[in-house]
């Protein structure tokens, strides 16, 4: 079982525990704000399940129908998570509107807040773990899950402040107001998750700093070649795809040009262990005198 899959299972378990605690907090108080927090945790469980399935599919080896692998499955999971977050926000706005129309005194608010605080601490610890390991493993699904849980932690803090203010001031309309603010916050979170995931589905290039290091690795390890041009990159989960044209002297043998390519590929895989490198070798009359100059 891979580390990514273990984390996905952990997310599902933690999500279920947190949902149970937040539902108990709402049941104790009748708070619309706490109900909104519980609704968001419902989305956490659904998206954790989606991430688990996506991670499992993404780890499948390449086959005849999917020669480049199944890595993009994680991006679909992250997009789905963004959609579910937005749906949860709309449900919360509906509950907040109902709360404004009939604001009520909360039952056992301190007990409910105490239970909710326990759930928030669990969420915060797991969120830190997911973001750290998800980025290290280059897993879009786990990072998206961690970002959503981070938004959930912020939401819970805001809910706690709002309910405490309602208790102190007796202004019980603060409860549905806080629920509405929660909805706006998670709408923004959902939008960010979706846009980041769509960039992967649309074959966005690697970040500028990574691209700079790729160019340097090609330049420093292509001894015997003249230049490299038409460099293209894209990423799909942990996999980075790199392809470019390598210009060599016309008299260079196929064997020697192959050795140059092997050397460059090895350097790129040292830089990016999950790199998939494709090099098209061309004779020197195809040179564009632009792109990457080989350092002798």
Automatic annotation (TrEMBL):
Keywords: Cell membrane, Membrane, Transmembrane, Transmembrane helix, Transport. SUPFAM superfamilies: Cation efflux protein cytoplasmic domain-like (SSF160240), Cation efflux protein transmembrane domain-like (SSF161111). GO terms for cellular component: plasma membrane. The keyword Transmembrane helix applies. It comes from the Bacteria. Pfam families: Cation_efflux, ZT_dimer. The keyword Metal-binding does not apply. It is a multi-pass membrane protein. Residues 11-202 form the Cation efflux protein transmembrane domain. Belongs to the cation diffusion facilitator (CDF) transporter (TC 2.A.4) family. This is Protein p34. It comes from Pseudooceanicola pacificus. The lineage of its organism: Bacteria, Pseudomonadati, Pseudomonadota, Alphaproteobacteria, Rhodobacterales.
């Amino acid at each position: 079982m891979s580390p990514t899959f273990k984390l996905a299972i952990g997310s599902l378990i933690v999500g279920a525990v947190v949902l149970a605690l937040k539902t108990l907090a709402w049941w104790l108080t009748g708070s619309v704000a706490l109900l909104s927090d519980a609704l968001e945790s419902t989305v956490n469980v659904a998206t954790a399940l989606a991430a688990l399935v996506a991670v499992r599919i993404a780890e499948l080896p390449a086959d005849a129908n999917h020669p480049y692998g199944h890595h993009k499955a994680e991006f679909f999971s992250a997009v789905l998570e963004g959609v579910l977050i937005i749906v949860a926000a709309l449900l919360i706005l509906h509950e907040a509107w109902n709360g404004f129309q009939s604001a009520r005194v909360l039952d056992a608010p301190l007990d409910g807040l105490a239970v909710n605080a326990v759930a928030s601490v669990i969420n915060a610890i797991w969120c830190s773990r997911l973001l750290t390991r998800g980025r290290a493993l280059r897993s879009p699904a786990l990072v998206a899950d961690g970002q959503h849980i981070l938004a959930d932690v912020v939401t819970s803090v805001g809910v706690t402040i709002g309910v405490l203010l309602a208790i102190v001031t007796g202004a019980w309309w603060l409860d549905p107001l806080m629920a509405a603010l929660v909805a706006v916050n998670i709408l923004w979170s959902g939008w960010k998750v979706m846009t980041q995931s769509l960039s992967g589905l649309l074959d966005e290039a690697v970040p500028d700093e990574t691209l700079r290091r790729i160019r340097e690795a090609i330049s420093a390890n292509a001894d015997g070649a003249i230049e490299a041009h038409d460099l293209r990159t894209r990423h799909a989960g942990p996999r980075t795809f790199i392809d470019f044209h390598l210009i060599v002297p016309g008299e260079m043998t196929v064997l020697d040009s192959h050795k140059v390519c092997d050397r460059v590929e090895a350097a790129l895989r040292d830089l990016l262990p999950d790199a998939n490198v494709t090099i098209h070798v061309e004779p020197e009359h195809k040179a564009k005198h632009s792109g990457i100059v080989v350092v002798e």
